[in-house]
Amino acid sequence: MASADELTFHEFEEATNLLAETPDAATTSRSDQLTPQGHVAVAVGSGGSYGAEDEVEEESDKAALLQEKQQRQQPGFWTFSYYQSFFDVDTSQVLDRIKGSLLPRPGHNFVRHHLRNRPDLYGPFWICATLAFVLAVTGNLTLVLAQRRDPSIHYSPQFHKVTVAGISIYCYAWLVPLALWGFLRWRKGVQERMGPYTFLETVCIYGYSLFVFIPMVVLWLIPVPWLQWLFGALALGLSAAGLVFTLWPVVREDTRLVATVLLSVVVLLHALLAMGCKLYFFQSLPPENVAPPPQITSLPSNIALSPTLPQSLAPS
């Protein structure tokens, strides 16, 4: 009588020969036949992976259809709906970004911690509009207060300051980020490790950095020159520090000379904006020029005046 080991060896040899003749045949181990009651044994052959592949293909098709649908629904840049998405922010997000611009810290990136790949135009637009309006109003109020202190100062409403303030602020908030973004894009081709911000992110950085100038302009109503310059220096320091801390992770990959020159130009342009606002909108006017009274020149006493009458009144 053959032992159990011999029977197992013969069965294994027969199965090996069978597989050699039909390699595509499905096989089931002996242990599967001894599955306990209440359990189901499933034998997977060479074609068992088709179910998983079908599920993967189905999911990939769904993702492709969803992406195609989103691209189809993406409006063109010439439509109002395209720009509407850039104003889709709530009050808490705007306040958080304003807070981040007012409290710059080293190592705290404004783009990564506050924008989070969702730049908006709502905050920069209204910050620039508010700053231009406050500049024009406080510039006129400064003249009114000066006239009350010194009646010799002549005041007339200067409505053109609204236009000057709006053009100056909006040109600075859009043209300077455009030039900076273009320069960083050009340097990206030179230094491949550099990853510049997008244009909208650059506009957001500059737009929110101007918020600190709004309370500075209001405090400039205090008629103390050294205090006005102190408030201007504090606001400029906070705003410029936020720009430098945000731009440093991008420009540090470049050469030391380029990074130093670029950040210096950024701070210099910011300082020129603040000084221009101070000198133009809050300039001190001299007293009104009053025409001096006409002086009567006295003639020498030895010159006698001839009592001549006009020819029309002379007797005939």
TrEMBL record:
Q: What is the protein name given in its UniProt record?
A: Protein YIPF
Q: Which residues form the Yip1 domain?
A: 102-274
> What are the subcellular locations of this protein?
Golgi apparatus membrane; Golgi apparatus, cis-Golgi network membrane; Golgi apparatus, trans-Golgi network membrane; Late endosome membrane
Q: Which InterPro entries is this protein grouped with?
A: Yip1_dom, Yip5/YIPF1/YIPF2
TM spans (from-to): 121-144, 164-184, 205-223, 229-250, 257-281
- Name the Gene Ontology molecular function terms of this record: small GTPase binding
Q: Which GO terms describe its cellular component?
A: Golgi apparatus; Golgi medial cisterna; Golgi membrane; Golgi trans cisterna; late endosome membrane; trans-Golgi network; transport vesicle
Q: Which GO terms describe its biological process?
A: vesicle-mediated transport
| Provenance organism | Pan troglodytes
Q: Which UniProt keywords apply?
A: Membrane, Transmembrane, Transmembrane helix
**Family recorded in the similarity comment:** Belongs to the YIP1 family.
Q: How does it sit in the membrane?
A: Multi-pass membrane protein
Record field: compositional bias (Polar residues)? 25-36
* Location of the region described as Disordered in the Swiss-Prot/TrEMBL record: 18-37
